[in-house]
Structures are given as C-alpha cells and as structure tokens.
Amino acid sequence: MTASVRKIRLLSSVAPFLAVGFISPALAQTGGPASGTTMEPPTAVAPADTTTAQQPAGKGAGGLQDIIVTARRTNEKLQTTPVAVTALNNQMLLTKQIAAVTDLARSTPALSIGTGGTGPASIVYLAIRGEAQNSPNSFSDNAVGIYIDGVYVGRPLVGNLGFLDMASAEILRGPQGTLFGRNTTAGALNLTTAQPTDKFEGYVKAGVGNFDQRVAEAVVNVPMTSDLSARFAGRYDKHGGYFPNPYLGHAQGDVAGEYYGRGTIKWAPNSLPVTLTVSGDYTHYRDHGNANSVAAINPTGPLATFSGLSAAGVPGFTGVNQPGAAPITQFIGTQFPHTDPIASNSWRDTYGHPTTGDPEIDNLANFNSAGSATANLVVDLGSVTVKSITGYRLSDTGDSLDLTGTPTSGGAFASEYKQHQFSEELQVSGKIGRLDYIGGLYYFREAGNERSDSYIFYNTPFGTRNRNFADFVSSSKGAYAQVNYHVTDALRLTGGIRYTWDSRFIDRHGVVDFTVPDPICAVGANSGKPASVAECTAPSKAKFHYPAWTAGADYKLSSDVFAYVKTSGASLSGGFNARPVPSFASISFKPEAVRDVEGGFKGEFFNRHLRTNVAVFYAWQKDVQRIVNTVFGTPPTLSQYVSNDGKVHTYGVEFEGTVIPWKGMAIDGSFAYLHARYVKGSRIESELNSAGALVEVDRSGEPITQAPKWTASIGATQTFEFESGKLSLHADYSYISSRYFDSATAADAAQEPVVAIENEASKIKAYGLVNGTITFAFRGGLEFSIWGKNLTNKPWYTNVFNSYTGLGATTQFQGAPRTYGGTAAIHF
Fold first, then answer.
1. Which ranges are annotated Low complexity under compositional bias (predicted)?
2. Contact (CB, 8 A) for 228 and 297
3. Distance of alpha carbon 640 from alpha carbon 579, whole angstroms
4. Which residues, 6+ apart, have CB-to-CB distance to 203 below 8 Å?
5. What proportion of the chain, given as a percentage, has pLDDT over 90?
6. 715-742 pLDDT, tens per residue?
7. Which of 94, 134, 338, 645 is deepest in the core (most CB within 10 A)?
8. Is residue 270 packed enough to be buried (19+ CB in 10 Å), middle (13-18) or exposed (0-12)?
9. CA angle 35-612-62, nearest 5°?
10. What pLDDT sits at residue 20?
C-alpha cells in the first residue's frame, strides 16, 4: 500500500468523526432545537432568480433552509451536490460584509487570497488547497477560474470584483476542468448577479466611515411589460489613506475611489419557451496602491551599498532621489521591523515634489477601467434545454510601485495592461430515463498589450530602466460532456470529459535604457544594439492541447445524509514570459496538470437545526507553474517570470457547519487543514552560485507558496423581532496560519545564511480578523446599520515582494487597519 493511499484512508476515516464531533457540543447546551427559527441575516432587497437561493426548509419548522447551487452547471441542492463548495447567497454576503472577491477568504476553508503586491489593487492572487499561480502579467493564467453570470474573466488583473446587488457567490474547491474548462486546476469562483423581477422595488443607501470614507449606492428594478423587466445598480465608494507616511508628513497608501454601474434587461415571453437576459457593466477604480513596509534589508545588497555611497557623498549619488542615509541604516541588521509603512508611489522628496524626473513613475496612480457585455439565452424544450452564453469584456489597468518600501530610489515598477476578450458557450442539457446529461462547445479569444518598466537606482551613474512591451493574442476551443446515471434512487454514478485546444502568440519588444539618447535592444535580432522599440521585436507562438475529466459515485444514506467519492483532472494553460529571463531560463512554460481524489460527507441533523459538510482530498500536480523574482545580467535587469517547477502532492480535510441553537440565533463555522510539499528531487533548477557559476540546485525542499496549513472561521447572527422591525447583531472571526509568497534554496553553502533570511522575510505571519455589524430594519423600509472591520486593529499583510538576494530588500504589503462606519438605507 502506497503512502498516498494510506493518507487518503486515514483522512476518510477521520472525516465522519469530525462531523459527529460537531453535533454533540453544538446542541448539548440547548436541550434540543428551538422551533420557529430560520437563518435570516439582515439584507437589502433580496435579489430574485438567485442560483444560491434559500428555499423553504420543507420539514422541521424553524430549520435550516435548502441552498440551491449551480456547481455542476445545473440547479441542485447543496446537500446533494458531490462537490466541495462554499455557497453564499445575497443575505450572507451582506451580513458578513463580503464586499469584494478578496473578502471571500474570510468564510471559505482552504482559500488564500493575496492582493496588490507588484500589481494594481484590482488584482487577486487566488489559491485553493495550495494550488496557485502568482504572476500578474497578461500571458499567464490563474489557477482559480472566475466566472460572472457564466462568463470567464480572463485576466486576474481585474479579478478583485466588487459585489453590488449580487445573487450569489459559490467557491468550488478542487479541479473543475470538465464543466468549467481550463485554468480551474484549483477550483472556481462562480458569481451570479441579481436578475430582474416582475416587481417594482429597490433601495437607496448612503454611508460614511473613518479615513474619510464616503459610500453611496442604489438599486432599482422596473417591470416594463408583462414580458420585459429591467434592473439597474450603481455605486460610488471613496476613502482616504490608511497609513501615515513619515517622510511626507501625511497619510498615504490605499487612497481609493471607485465608480460602478450595471444594467440588466430580461425578456421572458409567456408565449415562447425562451428567456433572454442581456447585461452590461462598467467600473473605474483608482488608488495609490497598497502601503508596503520593509521586512528585511540585505546589508551587503545593492540597496544598502548604494545608500552608503549616497551617505559618503560620492558624486552622482548625492541629492538624486536620496533623502538621506538614515532611512536605510535604521533597517540594516534589524530584520522584520514592520515599522510605520512607507506608501507605494513614494517617489517624492520630503516636500512632496517628484524626484525621478520620469513622469511615468512620478505621476502615475494605480487604476483600473473595465467593462463587459453579456447575453444569456435559454430555450426550454421540456426534456431538453439549450443555452447560449455570450460575453465580451475589456480592461485597461495600470500601476506604479516603490519596490523597496524606503524613500531611496533603489527599485520601482510601472506597468499598464490592456485586454479585450470574447467568449461563446453553447450548452445542451436534459434527461433520458435514468440518465442526466450536459454537454457543450466553447470558444474564447483575447488580445491586448502590456508595458512593464522596471527601474533600478534611476538617475544614478549605474541606474537602468528596462522597458518591456508585448502584444498578445490567445484563443481556446473546447468540447465537453458529462452524464449522471441514477442506478437507484439512492445511488448515482457520474462521468465526464472535456478536451481543450489552446493557441498563444506573443511579440515582445524590450529595451534597456541607460538614461542616454539611444536605448539598447533587449530582444530579437537587434539584441544588444542601440535601437528603437519598434526595431526590437521577438515574435513567438505555441499551441497546447489537453483533456479534463471526472468520475465518481454518490449515495444517499438517508433523506438527510449524503456521501460521495470522485476523482478529477484539469490543466492550467501554458504560455510565455513577456519580461526578460536569464539565459538559462525559458521564455515559454508548459501547461500545469492536476489530478485528485476527493471524498465528502454532507448531513443535516436534529430536525435540520444542524448542517455539517466534510471533504477530504489528495492531489497530484506536475509541471507546477511558479514565479521567480530576480535581478540578473550586466547592466542589471529586474524581472519576474514564470517557470515549471517539478511535482507537488497535497492532501487535507475541510469542514463547514451551521447550527441553530435557539430561536433567532444562527452560528456558522469552517476550518481546513492542508499539507502541501514538493516531491523530493522533482524540482531541479539552474542557478548562479556565489562565485557566479551556473549550477544545478534541488529546490524540492522549499515550502509551497500560498499554502497555509490552517484556515478557520466562525460567525454568529442573533435577530430580535419587535413590533416596529427587526434588530440583527452579527460578529465573525477568521484565521489563516502563516504562508509563503516566495521561497528560495541556496546554490552553495556561502549563500545559505542569506537565503534563510530571504525565506523568513517572504513569510506572512498568521493573523485573525474580527468584524461585526448591528442593523435595525424598520417595517416601513428604513434601515440603519453600524459596521466595523478588523475591530482589534490587527496588523496583517496581503502580499510580499521578495528580492532580498537581488535588489537587496523584501517588502510586505499591509492590509487595512480598523475601519468602521454607518449606513442608512431606504427600501421600496
């Protein structure tokens, strides 16, 4: 028996005891469930046609309601869906203050989300069960697919979507390639917006908060005819800086403003079996980036060396982007101080004046402008349903960033990404006797361009600016089918397969600018020669094809107890690196492949006053895609690229539960344990040792990035009914253990002490956050709320840029401090 099989059997044997263990203490103090209780957190206007809808309990007055999900592209009850999925309807999202994709990590086991970092604040680095892809460029994909109303969002650069007037959010864990397609090796976020109804309804809301926050939003639903209805939603949200900048004398960092609007029209004629829903949205977001603080300064690295030259008065290093030596010397030899952070875009002198002389770095703020149009057509022919999902999206995203977290001009990064995409999916589903089926064809195409500039000690004698331009076109085609066969009323078998064909093209244009009139071409036939950007060209293209599949069985042990086992496989698309890579690395990378086995148990007990869902899994990954941050070459080039790095095995257990211990109270909780590691000897890379020689290095002992061992959450909502209205009190706590965002292995013994510090600096420490809301909803439609996030004012971090052995510094990006405020709303 292999070690993998033994671990799977061990987890499977433990899972039922975890579920039963939650049952006894949860109800022991109550003497049994109270009657007449339902889980009803406070909410705005409840959106109609929700895919994650709360349905009547069906039996057991006051019990938990059914949750309907579309985790398998059709409507099913959560408790009889053989997938590990966290489902949140509109009420849950509002109560838990889940206002964007990043907030989902607070309520989802085994989900880790990084934000900001070397990309704009609109980017998300998603990881589920230790499976992640942390490169923010236009030529690599996320391991977690994001879908809005059935349309795939191609770029993680615009993945931090705001939640306004949502119907549901579903987080599917594990490979989902058969029904959702490529780039779902870790899982998928299935988001659904609220759909128009046949009622005139809506709300208007306004609020204020600390840090000068101002919020206004409105939703209106208008029935236009008996067949036609429309729904419109809009929001404005702005706040000031979170953290003081000690060198500018005022708050800076995370200054943000957002405008968002969406319109949806639904046509459902009574005389035809047709439903057509058309929607469009636009968002504009602008901020000053995440505040970053120095985690470590390498005392022998370039940043410290150049700062020393400035302090010594060496010509060319004084008075140019160097406010003084003190800001550096206070960090040398002191690891992980986490002192007051210096804001991103701190390319200003002590008087706030631009310092680089380059308007692209001095004046840029982070921004994201994005829009989309979607058309969903459903034709219900009785035993057969035909569905067309058509989507178009475009975005323009830019950012500029101080990489060192200090006022010296050691390193900076500026970029802009433009992308537009079109997708079409034709889907057929139905039932023949005991057989349910779904199948379809899929097409996706995207194109755009990227500009990424890296600055190293700009405007000093050895300063360089690497300018990387690239144009890209990608397309993907797929065909899939999945069937469920009901052997009996209790036993069901499932099998499915998908095949995908990808095509990718990139034309790179890169130059190295010494701040002299003639830049040097960095790519193509003119590499190493003075040339313009247009003369530097290096086109490349590649094609990939791969299958995805699933097979499983599930069984209803009773009307309230369900178990399943399944295995799945999926792939993360290959691609190209637009930014420079060392001579020993490749500009292209292969698809990453994942397969897993998963078993689950879902049950409801005590007259549906307790719900417990457990999943155990074991996964095998190969050709794992990982990012590398590096400085290499002469002159020095600062870069980030993707490489394929060996094999990884992960296994773990996940738990979600909800209990109603007494009337008006609902408690929910979750936790996950995750073990992730490289297969010994599978990750061998070429690197330069301390003497500058190229050597083979075994990196399979490194920790897996974005793979926290523990995640957990607990929340409670108490509601009180009064003659005038309803009072709702809610509090929740979420915890995530320490996790790495980057790691390294020494190429020789001389590098070991430095690499050890680099790895420690790239680790984000464990933290827990407390949030809460108090809401009173009057029966006439008036509603008042006060809210708070991170109520204990816990310092926490969202991402890391690690260039300790390259640039000579590691910075960590800080999450929001304690925020609080109040809102007033009128519902009609």
1. 41-57
2. no
3. 7
4. 44, 45, 218, 219, 781, 825, 826, 827, 828
5. 55
6. 999 999 999 999 999 999 999 999 998 8
7. 134
8. exposed
9. 15
10. 42
